[in-house]
Amino acid sequence: MQTAREKLTRIAVKVNGKACNQPPQNKLAAVIERFFYRHQNKLVLVHAAMFCLFLGLILIPLLTPPPPESANIFSNFTLFAQFLLWGVWFPLVFASVLLTGRSWCGLFCPMGAASEWTTRIGMGFKIPGWLKWEGTPIFSFLVVTILGQTVDVRDQATAIAEVFGGMLILALLVGFFYGKQTKRAWCRHVCPIGLLLGMFSRLGIVQFSPKLPRAGGDQYTEKGMCPTMISINHKQESRHCIECFRCVNPAAKGGLFLRFRKLGEEIIHIRTNSPSMGEVWFIFLSTGIALGGFLWLILPSYQTFRQNMGEWFINHGWDGIGNSGPAWLMSVHPEWRQAYNWLDFITIIGFMLGSMLFTCSLLSICTLASSYLAGKLGADGTLKKRFIELGYQFAPVAMISIIIGLGDTLFTTLHASALKGALLMGSIFWSVYLGNRLLSKQGVQGTKRGLALIPGFLGSLLIGLAWWPAVVGINFSLLEQYRQHLIILS
Ligand code: SF4
Ligand code: SF4
């Protein structure tokens, strides 16, 4: 009788001509693979439909009157569109990465598909070095996150159109100028959403592995069929794979095959999956900026900071600080009793950047302490190598931070404070578990790992505590007081 393991569809693979122990593919993965291989040519219809939906969601609210106070998501299109974007799309896309990888990118995303369409008809310039720089998507993520706060992208239809419409135009332009044929320079090198999804896909269960893997680790190539410039036979890490299924053919000897793995497996084995210092910094920075973007709305310390800054500017003759700036830079909506001025603009950005630097420093110190202790307790590698590997332990906490911060609309609609608390607690435990496994891979034995784990545990715990106001709920009376304060100022 066949064992469960024998029922798995085996993939015959070789590394540089020699047989290798490639993990087997299970039946569900084989079925999914065949389905997408057969229906790949229909994806263009999905992308076209998503493109129309996307344009509708960001443009129709601009053409309709502002929703009255009594309106709800079922009676008003603008509120419905906002709910779809922030209450459904954002949290679900991010949460789905764990189970379906970057399926959003390859199967549904209208922005990536549109960028590829413009590449097909575009100039085909070589992708320049500054675009390929590892910091480019981090920079674009920070700019979009901060601009989203200052223009109030969660509540204002014009801000949604500006931020998402602006990203779409940039994606079209990058596609038009850079890359050849079916390449997606925007998706690989610039898209802030892709950067997040890519990082979190490392935690997920979906992996595309080569049937004929070559030694040497992940490599970048603009010559192959992959839209995100992955050298197919060298592929190991999952972060750049957008799951387009173009390199998948169940009947072929080469290409990639789909398989499922354990949650967090790629992070545990990060040393063989292209660990990157840039990605570790991004984990730290994105956690901090998301936290800052949430906390400025609710913390009295932000009000104190703003008050002190305002007095300082007035005392130095900067009276214009109380005026509103251009509406594309800051939220100026007197009809909604909300009009930010330059003081708000500066202090919101200052608070978010301060939170980012503080969080980044805290997590860096914790990771450095863990790496140092691990070295003293028998870990292999250099301090820098251990730092990069152990930095990945914070990926679960970072992911849940962003889901809680940006998906607040969904949690509020579902009255799911307990779920937020459970997710946050779960992410802390998961981070500690990953830290333990990473230390084990570094060679720290048995109970010694407990000592090297402490700094990482403290880092995760402090991030969890900082997010606690998000779990217990926003103090809306404080937010309303702030809005009243803005009206008085303006
Ligand atoms: S990387 Fe960005 S633009 Fe490209 S498919 Fe993913 S979300 Fe869409
Ligand atoms: S590796 Fe294959 S599935 Fe992944 S993005 Fe490249 S071509 Fe698509």
Task: Provide an overview of this structure.
By secondary structure, the protein is mostly helical. It folds into 2 domains: 4-270, no CATH class; 273-489, no CATH class. It is built from 22 helices and 6 strands. Strands 1-2 form a two-stranded antiparallel sheet. Strands 3-4 form a two-stranded antiparallel sheet. The longest helix has 35 residues, at 342-376. It is globular. Residues 1-19 have low confidence and may be disordered. One iron/sulfur cluster is lined by residues 105, 109, 111-112, 171, 186-187, 191, 193-194, 242.
Rg measurement, Å: 24 Å
Hey, roughly how much beta strand do the residues contain?
Answer: under 5%
Number of strands: 6
- How many helical stretches? 22
Alpha carbon gap, first and last residue: 79 Å
Tell me roughly what share of residues is in helical segments: 55-70%
Ions and ligands: iron/sulfur cluster
**Widest β-sheet, arrangement of strands:** 1-2
Regions with pLDDT < 50 over 5+ consecutive residues? 1-19
Q: Mean pLDDT, as a whole number? A: 90
Question: What's the story with the biggest beta sheet?
Answer: 2 strands, antiparallel
The structural domain count equals 2
Structural class by SSE content: mainly alpha
Helix and strand run? HEEHHHHHHHHHHEEHHHEEHHHHHHHH
Shape: globular
